Amino acid sequence: MVSGRILTTLILIIAVTRATPNRNLQVRQMRPSNFTFPPGCGPTKRVGNLTYCITGSLDLGREWLVDFNMNFFDVFVNNSVKFGLNLAIEDVGTAKRLSVNTGGRATVVKHDFFPDWRPKDFVGAVTIGTRGGNTTYDNSTKKFVSNFEIYGDVDIFTQGRKFMSMPFSTPFGYASLGQDFDVEFNGSVVATGGDEQANSRLNFSLAMSTLSGSVLNWHLYGGLDVSIYWEKYGRHNFTIPFVDEDIQIP
Question: Does residue 2 lie in a domain region?
Fold first, then answer.
């Protein structure tokens, strides 16, 4: 088993654009609600073959209370890993409070790299976990900042034997909440493994952003880019998509 220079990069970003109250939001001010997407899913309840479930709640009164969580399912067992945040903003855009929602550990990807050529001979698995979350207020930027940890493992198997393995961890994942509906969620991890004869590079990305300045409409993107090199077989690149779509919170 090779342990060394696998390069793994995880980048997770939530960006909420500036928003202004409108008639639709005013109608909903007296109607706090919970939501899931797709409908009926949960942190341990998958709908169809989707790899994720979004859960949360909205209360859009004079103070906007938003709880928004992206849960990625484990491909083997019935659990998930959570990336989320809980925030409060006055309806004029003044930041009030922020916390991150973390927890769980899940093998979010198991991928057969050459199913037509060498089925099940070269298989990769990526396991991700999140934990913690401590919020402070930065007077210089007028933002709340909440840090959390992202950790996990990247493993590659050849003919059923573990060929490469690399654990990763960073305490520098963070969410921030500023003025005028300015929200950001970011985390990154870099780990390396392999040698000149065999090495890999993986880039996992997740992006969630509001559409048209509304906390009711979101664009979601998540995927994994993989580059694997074996001296005997050369370099091969793969893209593994998770989600790429717009959703509307009911």
Answer: no
Give the closest residue to 37 by CA, choosing from 52, 54, 62. 54
pTM over 0.85: no
Domain residues for 130? Answer: 7-248
Residue 115 lies in a domain: yes
- CB 106 within 8 Å of CB 126: no
Q: Would you say residue 221 lies in a domain?
A: yes
The whole-angstrom separation of Cα 160 and Cα 123 is 8
- Count of domains for the chain: 1
Token pair for 106? 């899940």
pLDDT tens digits in sequence order for the chain, 250 residues long: 544 433 333 334 333 333 444 434 443 454 678 999 899 999 999 999 888 999 999 998 888 899 999 999 999 999 999 999 899 988 888 889 999 999 999 999 888 888 888 898 889 898 999 999 899 999 998 999 999 998 888 888 888 898 888 788 878 788 888 887 777 777 666 666 677 887 777 777 777 676 776 677 778 877 777 788 888 888 888 888 878 888 887 6
1 in any annotated domain: no
How many Å apart are CA 149 and CA 172, to the nearest integer?
6
DSSP string, 166-187: EEEEEEEEEEEE-STT-EEEEE
